[in-house]
From TrEMBL:
The keyword ATP-binding does not apply. This is UBR-type domain-containing protein. CDD domains: PHD_UBR7 (cd15542), UBR-box_UBR7 (cd19677). It comes from Sorghum bicolor (Sorghum). Gene3D superfamilies: Zinc/RING finger domain, C3HC4 (zinc finger) (3.30.40.10). GO terms for molecular function: ubiquitin protein ligase activity; zinc ion binding. Keywords: Metal-binding, Zinc, Zinc-finger.
Length: 411
């Protein structure tokens, strides 16, 4: 341990930043908040909107200790201020529970008329403040260092990178700077439900080809070798050409299964009876062995076949949302950015309208006040002792000096 506080924080006194840097930092924080909240201004309960495709959800452990209820952003502010809240980021197809039967008679302040329960809502351990296969909270008060977590796009639980069934976190697709190369992650518990993805071209996997998902082993006589994209086709007894080949798929550490993978998948649009895969996805063998996590490339959802057979297949497995563009986090954040830009434009428009409503004298007075404020803060920052914290008394002194200057200017 360090001998003194000075030794523990040797660079603290040297830390400084400009007003411009401070404003940029605040804007970055505001943008991050808007992305998490989906651009929700937190004024109205979202209950009337029904089961929204995606929204920010919070769990109040003060009101519902069992963690079997969730509330929207507005209710978290208006109805649960000061309570022990768990921020769940976003959840799909969720309807605000605030004030229903799970809250013991406490009505919602924003929307008191609600059904006793939202039967279509899904709750996982996150609502209790637990995450990952280890069931630990985040931040973890017992951890020496908080380990980065990633969210499964299927079950929406969060996982520590060293708890997702990999031999090493180095197997996670990243670039040279450590930034993720994948757009979405499917955990090892959910990958069996999505095993049909291995019927698709290698381009849906992060880094072009996911080593854990598709591997060819020429030494295995039970698995047909995958030819090149220009390889030969096989001929059936009836003379029809078969453009599919068998490919070995890694399922666990010590087991493999052969599945039929199309040689050439049609990546164009699909509807009705026209299938991109050129086969019935229901004929794929069931997976019973341990599965590995999937790391999906950008735009992988657009590749999914939407023919009637495949669509029914998704629906039967409860993953039909994968073909809904608005379900993805990427689309959620895109809409949030649009809302933010519109809000900033409205604010700028309101400021312009206000300035235009002022007469010449009022405009001069406002500009003088802004200039005084800038100069006073600059003078304060240049003269203050950076080794000492800024107190409320310091800020009060700044505004007292501004008031004196204004009085002198008007006298």
């Amino acid at each position: 341990m360090a001998d003194s506080a000075g030794d523990a924080f040797p660079d603290e006194a040297e830390t400084s930043f400009t007003l411009h840097e401070y404003i940029e930092g605040m804007e970055a924080v505001e943008l991050e908040a808007d992305l998490v909240l989906g651009g929700d201004d937190g004024k109205d309960c979202t209950y009337a909107g029904g089961y929204l495709k995606r929204q920010a959800v919070f769990s109040c452990l003060t009101c519902v200790p069992d963690g079997v209820a969730g509330v929207c952003t507005a209710c978290s502010l208006a109805c649960h201020d000061g309570h022990e809240m768990v921020e769940l980021w976003t959840k799909r197809k969720f309807r605000c529970d605030c004030g229903n039967s799970k809250f013991g008679g406490h009505l919602c302040k924003l929307c008191p008329e609600k059904d006793s329960e939202n039967s279509a809502n899904a709750y996982n351990q996150n609502f209790k403040g637990s995450y990952c296969t280890c069931g630990r909270p985040y931040p973890d008060p017992e951890a020496k260092e908080q380990v980065e977590m990633i969210q499964c796009s299927i079950c929406e639980d969060w996982f520590h990178e060293d708890h997702i069934g990999l031999n090493s976190i180095e197997e996670i697709p990243r670039d040279e700077e450590g930034e993720p190369l994948y757009e979405e992650f499917i955990c090892h518990k959910c990958s069996p439900v999505c095993h049909f993805l291995k019927l698709y071209p290698d381009t849906i996997w992060a880094s072009g080809k996911q080593n854990l998902a598709l591997q060819t082993d020429a030494s295995d006589p039970n698995v047909m070798e995958k030819p090149s994209r220009h390889g030969n086709t096989e001929k059936h007894e009836n003379g029809a050409l078969d453009h599919t080949v068998g490919e070995k798929t890694s399922i666990g550490n010590d087991s493999t299964k052969a599945i039929v993978v199309p040689e050439e998948a049609n990546l164009g649009s699909s509807s009705g009876s026209s299938c991109k895969l050129g086969m019935d996805v229901n004929t794929m063998p069931a997976i019973t062995d341990k599965s590995e996590p999937f790391f999906m490339s950008k735009g992988w959802r657009e590749t999914l076949c939407r023919c009637e057979t495949c669509s029914n297949f998704y629906a039967q497995r409860g993953i039909a949302y994968l073909t809904d563009k608005e379900d993805s986090i990427e689309e959620y954040e895109r809409i949030a950015k649009q809302k933010r830009e519109k809000k900033l434009e409205q604010q700028q428009g309101a400021a312009t309208n206000f300035l235009n409503s002022l007469d010449h004298v009022q405009k001069i007075e406002m500009l003088s006040g802004i200039n005084d404020l800038k100069n006073e803060f600059q003078s304060f920052l240049e003269s203050c002792d950076t080794s000492k914290p800024i107190t409320s008394e310091d800020i009060r002194s700044v505004f007292e000096n501004l008031a004196k200057k204004k009085k002198q200017r008007l006298s």
